[in-house]
Structure formats: structure tokens, C-alpha cells
Amino acid sequence: MAGDVITLITADHRRVEALLSRLGAERGERRATVAELHALLTAHARAEEDRVYPGIDAHHGLEEHKEAEILLDALRRAEAGSAEFEETLELLAGTVVRHIRDEETTMLPLLARTAGDKRLKRLGAAFAERRQQVLRALAAAGDGQVTRADLYERARRADLPGRSRMTKPELEAALDQAAQ
Ligand SMILES: [Fe+2]
């Protein structure tokens, strides 16, 4: 059923897993992936806490969300590829995978059993709305966003030719390619 809360939450979980495996495999530009993961996880967690958990009396996820938040901050501060970065990434992946497994084996099946289609759709709309709000707020604050200047600086260090004429998406693509 499109737009229901179970489909939306599950789709986010798959996105998070894909970003974590991209980071783990050192594919692409890792700082950009960390920024993307940070925005996605923050918006996902807020939307669950504010719009989904209260209705079903699920408090368990809150601690995992806090733990993930602390680890995400540490990951954003750590130098990509440093021992601290790798350790933090491993801890974060563990926490997030546990959260995903818990929700997908307990909370979501419970919702599927107890909530009707209408309620699942209503929760889905509320979840999506809050998630979008948080993503927009993060983008407006420039939080979780990599600027063109950040990318240019990395391109300069990597000595990428033609960097000064590149737009932000072009710099992203060139850095991605150089990292392969
Ligand atoms: Fe979740």
C-alpha cells in the first residue's frame, strides 16, 4: 500500500543501509555520504518520535536514536579514513542495524496487525510531513549540507583539473569518480 507508514519507514531503512554500506565500502565521497546519512537519520528519527511512537506507545527506539545522534556527530567531526572515523562508523552501523531490526520485527508487524489501512495511511502522511519539515530545516540551516566551497577545497587537495569552473554537482561527480 503506497504512502502507508510501514512502507515509508521501511524504505528509509533501506536507504540508510545503502548509505552505510557505501561508507563501509569506501565508495564515493565519504564526507558527502556522512552529511546525507546525518540528514536522513535525523529526519527519520524525529518523524518517528513525534508522529509514530506516541500513537503506539513505543519508547524503546528513543534510546537508540540518541545513541545514533551522538555517534553521527562524532562521525561528522572525525577525519574521513582515520581510526576514529572507522570505529565510530562501526558503532553507528551496529546501533542503526539494531534499530532497524527491532522496528521491523516488533513495531512494524504490530502496527500491521493492529492498525487499519486508514490509520496506516494517516500515520504515513504525518510521518512524511514531519520528515520533510526536518529535512527542510536542516537544509536551511546549512546543516548536513556540503557547500561548494567544501567540495572545491577537496578537489584542490586532490588536484582535480578544471575544478574552478565546476558547479557543485560537477565537483561532487568528479570527486566521486576520483574516489573510485
Ligand atoms: Fe526507523
Task: Give a verbal description of the structure.
Helix content is 79%, strand content 0%. With 180 residues, the chain is mostly helical. It has one domain. Helix 2 (30-56) runs antiparallel to helix 3, helix 3 (60-77) runs antiparallel to helix 4 and helix 6 runs parallel beside helix 7. The chain is elongated. The termini are far apart. The mean pLDDT is 88. The protein binds fe (ii) ion. Fe (ii) ion binds next to helix 1, helix 2 and helix 4.
Helices and strands in order, then pairings?
Elements: H1 5-24, H2 30-56, H3 60-77, H4 83-114, H5 117-140, H6 148-157, H7 168-179
The structure holds fe (ii) ion.
The site of fe (ii) ion has 6 residues, from helix 1, helix 2 and helix 4.
* Number of H/I helices: 7
Proportion of β residues? under 5%
Q: List low-confidence stretches.
A: none
Biggest beta sheet summary: none
**Mean pLDDT, nearest integer?**
88
Compressed to H and E, one letter per element, the order equals HHHHHHH
The CA-CA distance between the termini, in Å, is 38 Å
Overall radius of gyration:
18 Å
Total beta strand runs: 0
Number of domains: 1
Helical content stands at over 70%
Label the structural class.
Answer: mainly alpha
Net shape: elongated
Q: Could you tell me which ligands this complex binds, including any ions or cofactors?
A: fe (ii) ion
